[in-house]
């Protein structure tokens, strides 16, 4: 039986890779190509690469940089950031990107998801949704570019994304990003229970136990950032990834 996928999530800026805490205070953690080379050696399952400046700067993907990263990678890569047209998605796939991640563009409608799915197939389209609790504790869809929640019902949003062709949902918890205290299991169950496609959960992982808990709660795959770029209680910057035997043991019958 195949174990669940464990996916490092790397945040890309013009200066290199960064790690945020609650989507703020980005700290430099290294060069993306060096990180990919290390992850190659550690035989990671997959990578999620998100350019967190593209939408904010109203620009498209940096194709030249993406090509350089993909050329070094031995694992599948899902890319998101600044994708607003089907043509951009097609170019990413031509460069070797396996999955195109759409977040900001889907907040205003689902036409891009439909177009990408029609051209690339649903298996190549990931709808990402950032979520933050409001003061009443309710899960609200969050627009990271605007820095605020939006008037979209979370369940309806992910269901509409799937109905328009998304083959996977990537859900990220803003309040738990970079904290390492564990995933929001209630959020995960809400999203996984609303859709029939695989759900990747991100935001909060700090231990292998957290990964196991998420799989037990309905995630098809688990993603993390800090867990794979920092090491130890002093959070020394060090690209790392658990050995296969450790992951098999950690998941057990989850």
How would you explain this protein's 3D organization?
With 254 residues, the protein is α/β, with parallel strands linked by helices. It has one domain (5-251): Aldolase class I (TIM Barrel). Helices cover 32% and strands 27% of the residues. The protein contains nine helices and 14 strands. The chain has helices at 32-41, 63-72, 86-95, 111-120, 154-163, 185-194, 208-216, 226-229, 244-251; strands at residues 5-13, 16-21, 24-30, 47-51, 77-80, 99-102, 125-133, 139-143, 148-149, 168-173, 199-202, 221-224, 230-231, 236-237. The strands form two sheets. Strands 1-4-5-6-7-10-11-12 form an eight-stranded parallel barrel, surrounded by five helices. A two-stranded antiparallel ribbon has the order 13-14. A hairpin with a 2-residue loop joins strand 2 and strand 3 (24-30). The longest helix is centred in the first third of the chain and has 10 residues, at 32-41.
Keywords:
two-stranded antiparallel sheet; 14 strands; TIM Barrel; 27% strand; 254 residues
CATH architecture group name: Alpha-Beta Barrel
CATH C-level name: Alpha Beta
Distance between the termini: 12 Å
| CATH homologous superfamily placement | Aldolase class I
| Annotation field: number of helices | 9
The largest beta-sheet arranges its strands as: 1-4-5-6-7-10-11-12
Largest sheet: 8 strands, parallel, barrel
Cα gyration radius (Å): 17 Å
Question: What is the residue-averaged pLDDT?
Answer: 96
Give the percentage of residues in beta strands.
25-35%
CATH topology: TIM Barrel
Q: How many domain units?
A: 1
The low-confidence runs, each spanning 5 or more residues with pLDDT under 50, are none
Q: What shape does the CA trace take?
A: globular
- Helix content bin: 25-40%
Number of strands: 14
């Amino acid at each position: 039986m195949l174990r669940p996928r464990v996916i490092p999530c790397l945040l890309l800026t013009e200066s290199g890779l960064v790690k945020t805490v609650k989507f703020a205070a980005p700290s430099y953690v290294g060069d993306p190509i060096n990180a990919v080379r290390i992850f190659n050696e550690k035989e990671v399952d997959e990578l999620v690469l998100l350019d967190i400046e593209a939408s904010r700067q109203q620009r498209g993907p940096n194709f030249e940089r993406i090509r350089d990263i993909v050329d070094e990678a031995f694992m599948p890569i899902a890319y998101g950031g600044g994708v607003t047209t089907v043509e951009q998605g097609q170019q990413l796939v031509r460069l070797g990107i396996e999955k195109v991640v759409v977040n900001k563009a889907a907040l205003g409608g689902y036409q891009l998801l439909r177009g990408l799915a029609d051209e690339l197939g649903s298996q190549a389209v990931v709808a990402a949704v950032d979520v933050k609790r409001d003061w009443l504790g309710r899960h609200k869809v969050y627009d990271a570019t605007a820095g605020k929640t939006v008037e979209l019902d979370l369940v309806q949003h992910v269901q509409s994304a799937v109905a328009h062709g998304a083959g996977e949902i990537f859900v990220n918890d803003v309040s738990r990003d970079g904290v390492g205290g564990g995933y929001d299991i209630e959020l995960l169950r809400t999203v996984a229970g609303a859709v029939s496609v695989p759900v990747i959960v991100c935001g909060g992982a700090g231990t292998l136990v957290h990964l196991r808990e998420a799989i037990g709660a309905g995630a098809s795959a688990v993603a993390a950032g800090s867990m794979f770029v920092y090491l130890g209680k002093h959070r020394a910057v060090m690209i790392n990834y658990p050995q296969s035997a450790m992951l098999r043991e950690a998941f057990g019958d989850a």
